[in-house]
Amino acid sequence: MRKLRIAALVREGLVPPETFEGFGPDNTPEWKMEFDVVATLSNIGHEVRALGVYDDLGPIRETILQWKPHVAFMMLEEFLGISVYDQAIVSYLELMQQHYTGCNPRGLLLTHDKALSKKIMQFHRIPTPRFVVFAHGRKVKPPSRLRYPIFVKSAIEDASYGISQASVVTNDQALLERVKFVHEHAKTDAIAEEYIDGRELYVGVVGNHRLQTLPIWEMHFSRMPEELARIATAQVKWNPKYQKKHGIETRAAEDISPEMRSNINRLCKRVYRALNMSGYGRIDLRLSPDGQVYVLEANANPNLEFGEDFAESAESGGISYEDLLQRIVNLGLRYSAPWKQ
User: Fold this and answer.
1) Is there a domain that residue 122 lies in?
2) How distant is the alpha carbon of residue 308 from its chain centre?
3) Residue 334 within a domain
4) Residue 206 lies in a domain
5) Could you list the pLDDT tens digit for every one of the 341 residues in the chain?
6) Which of 67, 102, 137 finishes a domain?
7) Which of 175, 194, 213 is the last residue before a domain boundary?
8) Domain count, the chain
9) Is residue 74 part of a domain?
10) DSSP structure class, residue 139
11) Which of 5, 108, 268, 284 could be bridged to 69 by S-S, CB 3.0 to 4.6 A?
12) What is the CATH number of the domain that holds 166?
């Protein structure tokens, strides 16, 4: 394996230390993913420099011109604190003719915009819940063509930002209140879609042109009270005590027929291509009790933390964490950006 110079781009404040000493499962630091990626790439023989970025492109330019990295490992999820600006960082890397890992600018733009991505999926006849968008700053009127219950969330934020049990509403008044909450707290448009009851599934996809799907992963809610919706709220995703209390865990999906698995994998590849994704991504789905699969959303550059869903799914499919990161690096080097053409 060739030793590479890798510039790890992370958010300012998340540059990981050299060791994980003093931390563990009960006090996981915010920079856990960054540490896992940087440490693992270093351990397999690469020269890695972590670069913290917040509101200045200067350090990126200086690193590219002076150190000349073979590839930039893209872990920035925002710029200026704005989540949709990661696409601008990747565009800047392309302008600098710099190889990078993960999704290209167009794929990031499309997957960030949940409404636009759903419109594209509908055009391609990919099953997704019916939805409407409530523009920030506009008068809100309950939709007549959606059936309750309805799931309300930000049209662009990810990582379950602002999502709670109150996000699933059953009447017009609750809908208006939740849309107002999204407008006031997320400062974005709100998207409201028909809530699909059923199994919560995730499928990782790796590749640029030739795509590989990882084993189907499922979120389980074994001790969740019946009156609560089985959704990935912020509490479900990020609160270990809440997870333990309600028996929330993710693992390989079982009791899915080979035919259904094949259909789901083909569907996820269709979504990946329709949204112009590259590098690696995760497709979130719902499998209803009657066997209908719905695509909820696509996530470019999902969490790569060791032990989390994407890496665990890869490992269950025979891809070690080291091999997964190396494959992502190789895909970044091989991605056919316009400047290479």
Assistant:
1) no
2) 12
3) no
4) yes
5) 799 999 999 999 999 998 888 787 778 899 999 999 999 999 999 999 999 999 999 999 999 999 999 999 999 999 998 888 999 999 999 999 999 999 999 999 999 999 999 999 999 999 999 999 999 888 888 888 899 999 999 888 775 677 888 899 999 999 999 999 999 988 889 999 999 999 999 999 999 999 999 999 999 887 877 877 788 787 777 777 778 887 888 899 999 999 999 999 999 999 999 999 999 999 999 999 999 999 999 999 999 999 999 999 999 999 999 999 999 999 999 999 999 88
6) 102
7) 194
8) 3
9) yes
10) P
11) 5
12) 3.30.1490.20
Host domain of residue 306: 197-327
Q: Which amino acid is it at 131?
A: F
The amino acid sitting at 3 is K
Three-state secondary-structure class, residue 164: coil
| Per-position b or e across 221-260, b if 16+ CB within 10 A of its CB | beebeeeebbbbbebbbeeeeebeebebebeebeebeeee
Q: Where are the extended beta strands (E) located within the chain?
A: 5-11, 47-53, 71-74, 131-134, 150-154, 168-169, 190-194, 199-206, 212-213, 217-221, 248-252, 280-287, 293-300
Whether the model clears a pTM of 0.85, i.e. scores above it, the answer is yes
Query: Do 190 and 201 belong together in one domain?
Result: no
